[in-house]
C-alpha cells in the first residue's frame, strides 16, 4: 500500500479561503463569522465552513455555490433554500483571505449549517443565509474581523463599485427567507438517517449542527 498523502485527498483541491458572516435563517439576529475553504467541482464550488482559521477551529457547516443559470434551473420548491451574495460582495463584507486583489464572486448561491451547541454538535442542522442589506449587519463583528486581519471593508466596497454592475438585479427567487408573511425557511428534521445524508448538490447536505448577481 502506498503511503498516505494529503495530495491524494479532496483537501488537495481546496484553492480558496473566503471569510464572511452567516445569519441563521429563522433567527435573523444570530450571526457568526464563517471561514470557507472551497474547491471547484465541475460547474459549482463546495466549501467546508469553520468558525475561525485557527488550528482548533470547529467545523460548523458546508456550503455549495452555483451559477445563476444553474439556480434558475432548480425546482421552485428547492429555490427556497438558497440565498444570494449580491449585497455582501458589493458591500465588501465577503473577503478573500490571503489575496492581494479584491475578488468578485460573480453569480452564486449558498446554503449551510451551524453548530448550535458550543461544545458538541447536537440537534437538527440549521439553514444559514447571508446579509441582504446593511440593516442586517452587525458592524461591530465586521469591525473586529477587519482589525484582526488588517482589511478594510469600506475601502473594498468602494473599489468593487468601480467594476461591479451594481444595477444588475438580484434574482427575486433567491432569499425567500427574507420575504414577509411567510414561515421561516428551515429544514424539517428527518426520521431516517439516509435522508440526512443527502448529498445531491442542492445544498441540503446535513452536517455538524448547527447570488451574487
Strand content: 15-25%
Q: What ranges have pLDDT less than 50 throughout 5 or more consecutive residues?
A: 100-115, 190-213
Q: Please tell me the overall pLDDT.
A: 74
In sequence order, what are the helices and strands, one letter per element?
EEEEHHHEEHHH
Total strand segments: 6
How much helicity do the residues have?
A: 10-25%
Coarse structural class = alpha+beta
Rg of Cα set: 17 Å
Distance between the termini: 48 Å
Largest sheet: 6 strands, antiparallel
Q: What global shape is seen?
A: globular
The number of helical runs is 6
Quaternary state reads: single chain
Overall domain count:
1
Descriptive overview:
Belongs to the OBAP family. Residues 193-213 are annotated as: Disordered. This protein has helices spanning 68-72, 76-79, 86-90, 139-149, 153-160, 193-196, and strands spanning 16-24, 27-41, 44-50, 59-65, 95-96, 128-129. It is α+β, with helices and mostly antiparallel strands. It has one domain. Strand 3 (44-50) and strand 4 (59-65) form a beta hairpin. The longest helix is centred in the last third of the chain and has 11 residues, at 139-149. It is globular, with a radius of gyration of 17 Å. Mean pLDDT is 74; it is low at 100-115 and 190-213.
SSE topology sketch:
Elements: E1 16-24, E2 27-41, E3 44-50, E4 59-65, H1 68-72, H2 76-79, H3 86-90, E5 95-96, E6 128-129, H4 139-149, H5 153-160, H6 193-196
Antiparallel strand pairs: 1-2, 1-5, 1-6, 2-3, 3-4
Short description, anyone?
Belongs to the OBAP family. Residues 193-213 are annotated as: Disordered. It is built from six helices and six strands; from the N terminus they run ββββαααββααα.
